Amino acid sequence: MLDKTKKDWWKSAVAYQIYPKSFQDTNGDGVGDLPGIIQRLDYLQELGIDVIWLSPVFASPQVDNGYDISDYRAIDPMFGTLEDMQTLIREGKKRGIGIMLDLVLNHSSDQHRWFLEAKKSKDNPYHDYYVWRDGVPGKFPNDMKSVFGGPAWDWVPEVGQYYFHQFAPQQPDLNWENPALRRELYDMILWWMEQGVEGFRLDVIDQIAKEPDNFITNNGPRLHEFLRELSRETFQKGCLITVGEAWGADTERAKLYSAPDGSELSMVFQFEQMMLDQKGEKWDPIPLPFVKMKQSFAKWQTALHSCGWNSLFLNNHDLPRIVSRWGDPGKYRVQSAKLLGTMLHGMQGTPYIYQGEELGMTNIQLPIEEYRDVEILNMYRERLKKGYAPEDIMKSIYARGRDNARTPMQWDSGKNAGFSEETPWLPVNPNYEEINAEKALADSDSVFHYYQKLIALRKEYPVFVHGDFTLLEEEHPKLFVYRRSWQGKEALVVCNFSEEETEFTLPEGWQGAQTLLDNYPQQEAEQPMRPWEAKILYQEK
Ligand code: TEU
Ligand code: CA
Fold this sequence. Notes:
TIM Barrel, 8-stranded parallel β-sheet, 16 helices, globular, binds 1-O-alpha-D-glucopyranosyl-D-fructose, binds calcium ion
């Protein structure tokens, strides 16, 4: 178990993201819940993770699956009670697993008491908790658009003003310019810290300092000032792991966010690699530009080494499944899932595993009526209106829709994959008889057991935590090869992103090195890399 009283303990940690709606249902309503997570803690302990990032479980009308919070201090009855949360925290701690809550501080639900008050009148003390502009009905303050489609402004007749929302109309943006709002948020965070949570993930944190008059959504001028105040008033009073979601981060900004003095956050999620295989919008995928992808990872690894900290992830609840995206969901599903894990876990940073990734779960294809995600449904309507052919829109959804990641966790080959006794809120992927946790646990060669080893490596070999990073074979169109070194200890990670055998010559000085991990049975060195083969070599000098 990690000693979580030690500063920077999270540098050796591995996190696991749970999307609670889809993890484990215990009361037969087809929706996952907190008792379900408690029931599966032993499974997570066996995997070897240190912290759970729990997507929002707070009271919410669920317009955006909990990313629209109506009470930050209450648990949504659909997920359980505050007592269940306390049990989860306690039972997690016993197993060396901490809980990171998902703080949505950029916006609240339109059903939050603050917003219900705010729209009563301009003099209401809560009015200034949100972002308002004068106007007349039908004439928006400006033409800013919401991420989920449509204008970023909605009219409230009672006050004769528009409010600003970067996401759905039911997710009004909070006004961080108002110190009273900020204080209210800090007190709430301190209260959760008292409950024993060990960290936080901060939703769209780079959007809090918006300036709609200047068309600024992310990276606003006061962003880092707000973050430093937030951190000083809350996180720094404990020894927490904090990660901010920052679509707009470049390496320079990431260094500020993750400065070693702890003045802001532990790290951020940046999305540079996740935006390479698309043309403009995410709905228009293109084949992965492989060399660019390697260069991008290398750039981040090098830029933040010893002056910041990376988060490492290939999946989350907003992204399609990586095996379907960059791997091979067919014949080489198992090998490619292991390869992708190897590529990522060999790097410097804190890895985040998204539920089901450790099983090599894949994307799904549903008829449009069966999708639930507000982003998918809005995009479908908008593109239809623009004249796109329905079958082309469906292709975009199959490739990029967020519900790909949100189908129920596949526990076993029984009814509804062991997720629920009743019809799940989103269909189970039909491949659950083949891909499920029970099967993976019984098979020593499964993706699960391979992830177990990846997680253990980081604990056993400090080079994975501290080592620097050098990209080799930079221009190679199929091989991703890199070296990590730290105090005379060296690891070499070699991944063959291809279903063909690929020649690979060991770099100078690596002959006779030990093989720590291979996703195929070991063979003599100097053999070509097999289809989707990945391995890690190790030596001490
Ligand atoms: O996501 C931020 C965000 O910008 C996403 O909506 C993203 O643009 C889109 O999904 C691209 O795939 C966060 C949460 O992770 C997401 O689930 C929420 O819907 C969103 O914020 C609003 O809170
Ligand atoms: Ca339930």
